[in-house]
Design brief:
heterodimer; A: mainly beta; Jelly Rolls; six-stranded antiparallel beta sheet; five-stranded antiparallel beta sheet; 1 helix; 20 strands; B: 194 residues; mainly beta; 46% strand
Chain lengths: 267, 194
């Protein structure tokens, strides 16, 4: 499987490559995975060479600590492919050593431009063909949830931008297969009233079995949710996939953040 | 060593089979003694003539989606713009192809593309989305939205090799000047590690 993403790089940054999100703060770009993956080749593609003495690199981090070797493109090259040796283990909690990021770094002052990167990864114990798709961020609050669904996507990270118009967030899924395995990190401010949040993967506008209700957090806290048995099947290419969330108590207005990661196995 | 041992001929009435080791209790045809694994497959070539057993490394399927982080729409404001198929931080197609190209880390086979537009082309207009490989657009797997069509997919097999540069290319026809695209999704197959 191949992760690909791009970023506007004029400074060092951290990325959740599953949602093309990047931030100067490592904690804000972290994502958590429901399965372990080994890391293989990585590539960098620039529009122009970094300039004399300059270079651009990325490396894989786990809990802020390097877990994969560094891929570097140096002047006068505009692209590079090199092996990565490393593993992102499955996440079970929010703790350091569980949240993954990619670190993009600069040597010198290469020109501001878009940097397209990729990594080959693979789960090697269960579900070898699984692909990972993430959205959200541990940083930015989601739009205030209502008791009807608000939609976003697991390909967009960071800002929590979403809307009640599901049609704007439905992805035509290009192949048949099954969604399975999920990791959700949910963080809520102190809540005086019950505020369970329901997250669901929807196909063609209908809730699937992958619907998860995370219970109230009566103090400022976070909780991690992992699940590995429920599945949602794409039976026909082109079916529309969306991701929605809603709360169960309209009177509760405590803000929350979430970052989530789904697995998908193509037929 | 006898002629039989040397494989020079097969005695009439004796069916040649193999054993894994000298301790193997059951001789069988080679095809039955080689088993598929989770990432290893096999094919019989030249069936019923000079058969050969081919061991193959399995492929897995993957999905890429390009979308806009801001509002779900990719604004295509002029023709011949380029976009990474793997997602983009800005969601905005680039006039400069070099800013949209991804260097492929593996050989892949692209198998389908879906384009979902917020608005449909009007009479006579077309919006074409196709793959561009090493700077050359290809028509072998592309989607052409025509009048009244907002969602369309295409299937096929398009091989792209390791170290080739891949991106999406949008082209207008029939006087079309702008479009808002929600998503472009791509399915591919790639060899997995053995």
């Amino acid at each position: 499987m191949i992760i690909g993403w791009s970023s506007l790089n004029n400074a060092a940054s951290y990325a959740n490559p599953l949602s093309t999100y990047f931030n100067a703060t490592e904690l804000f770009a972290r994502f958590w995975t429901p399965v372990s993956v080994d890391l293989y080749d990585g590539t960098i593609k620039l529009n122009s060479a970094p300039g004399g003495g300059n270079s651009r690199s990325f490396r894989c981090l786990d809990g802020g600590v390097q877990t994969g070797s560094i891929v570097t493109v140096s002047d006068p090259d505009t692209s590079v492919r090199s092996a990565i040796t490393g593993t992102w283990p499955a996440s079970t909690s929010e703790a350091d050593g569980q949240g993954k990021t990619l670190h993009h770094s600069l040597v010198g002052t290469p020109p501001f431009e878009i940097c397209n990167n990729s990594i080959v990864y693979q789960n090697n114990d269960i579900d070898p063909g699984i692909g990972l798709y993430s959205g959200g961020s541990p940083n930015a609050a989601f739009d205030t949830a209502t008791t009807t669904y608000i939609y976003t996507t697991f390909f967009k990270g960071g800002t929590g931008v979403a809307s009640t118009t599901e049609a704007n967030w439905q992805i035509p899924w290009p192949t048949t297969g099954k969604f399975k395995r999920v990791f959700i990190l949910y963080k809520s401010a102190a809540s005086a009233l019950p505020q369970s949040i329901i997250f669901t993967l929807r196909i063609d506008g209908v809730d699937t079995a992958m619907t998860y209700t995370l219970p109230s957090l009566l103090t400022t806290n976070s909780q991690c949710y992992t699940e590995s048995t429920l599945e949602a099947e794409i039976t026909s290419a082109g079916q529309l996939v969306s991701f929605g969330y809603k709360k169960t108590n309209a009177a509760q207005t405590a803000s929350f953040t979430a970052v989530y990661c789904f697995g998908f196995i193509a037929d | 060593m006898t002629a039989i041992d040397k494989g020079l001929f097969t005695p009439v009435g004796i069916i040649p089979k193999v054993r894994v080791t000298s301790n193997d209790t059951t001789a069988d045809y080679l095809n039955n003694k080689v088993v598929e694994g989770s990432r290893i497959g096999k094919n019989i070539l030249n069936a019923s003539v000079n058969e050969q057993l081919q061991i193959v490394i399995a492929e897995v399927g993957g999905v890429w989606v390009s979308c806009n982080r801001a509002d779900g729409n990719i604004s295509v404001l002029s023709p011949n713009l380029y976009l990474s198929p793997t997602g983009h931080s800005t969601g905005a197609p680039m006039a400069n192809i070099g800013e949209a190209q991804l260097l492929l880390p593996r050989d892949i086979t692209l198998t389908s593309m879906y384009v979902y537009s917020a608005t449909a082309p009007t009479a006579g207009q077309t919006l074409t989305c196709q793959f561009n490989i090493d700077g050359t657009p290809t028509t072998s797997l592309q989607v052409v939205l025509t009048t009244g069509v907002t969602l369309l997919g295409a299937t096929g097999e398009l091989s792209v090799l390791q170290d080739q540069l891949l991106c999406l290319q949008f082209t207008f026809g029939g006087g079309m000047t702008s479009a808002n695209i929600k998503f472009v999704s791509t399915a591919y197959r790639v060899m997995i590690e053995s």
